[in-house]
Amino acid sequence: MRLITHNMLQCHVKNCNDNNFPLRLEEVEVELVEADFQADFLRNILGKLEWEALVNTAVQVGNTSLPATIPDNAADNEEFLKVLHNALLETHIQSGNMVCPNCQHVYPVKDGIPNMLLAEHEI
Ligand SMILES: [Zn+2]
């Protein structure tokens, strides 16, 4: 699971509607997988990202290269786009747990796949 996916996941346990994002990472195993650099894709996704969550998540997996705020010239800043590319698309969570900051529900990640299924009483 790439960090871009994690940036779009929130807890969906019944009545867990506040403070349910981003899911906290615990005991994760991270793998870097090289991917083609596509500047246009990054420019398009930029406005859709929850930036603060992404920065914090990247730090949790040992990547401290993202700036605290998106630079004003982001779209033309090749250096920034490369750093973003590495964090967002090349950083994979292979295994571990994602924990809801509100209800503490644990979503496991196994073989790179997040399991977002809930038990019947949680739906
Ligand atoms: Zn929750």
Helix content: 25-40%
Intertermini distance? 24 Å
Q: Please name the CATH topology.
A: N-terminal domain of TfIIb
CATH class: Mainly Beta
**What is the level-2 CATH architecture name?**
Single Sheet
Structural class: alpha+beta
Q: What is the tally of helical segments? A: 4
Beta percentage is 15-25%
Count the beta strands. Answer: 4
| Low-confidence residue ranges | none
Major β-sheet annotation: 4 strands, antiparallel
Overall outline: globular
Organism: Mortierella isabellina (Filamentous fungus)
Protein name: Trm112p-domain-containing protein
Family: Belongs to the TRM112 family.
Pfam families: Trm112p
List the helices and strands and how they pair.
Layout: H1 3-6, E1 24-32, H2 39-45, H3 51-60, H4 78-89, E2 91-99, E3 106-110, E4 113-114
Antiparallel strand pairs: 1-2, 2-3, 3-4
Bound molecules: zinc ion.
The site of zinc ion has 8 residues, from loops.
Describe the structure.
The longest helix has 12 residues, at 78-89. It is globular, with a radius of gyration of 15 Å. The chain has 123 residues and is an alpha+beta fold. It has helices spanning 3-6, 39-45, 51-60, 78-89; strands at 24-32, 91-99, 106-110, 113-114. A hairpin with a 6-residue loop joins β2 (91-99) and β3. The protein has a single domain (3-118), classed as N-terminal domain of TfIIb. It has a four-stranded antiparallel sheet with strand order 1-2-3-4. The protein contains four helices and four strands; from the N terminus they run αβαααβββ. The model has no long low-confidence stretch (mean pLDDT 96). The chain binds zinc ion (ZN). Zinc ion is lined by residues 11, 13, 16, 20, 100, 102-103, 105. This is Trm112p-domain-containing protein. Pfam families: Trm112p (PF03966).
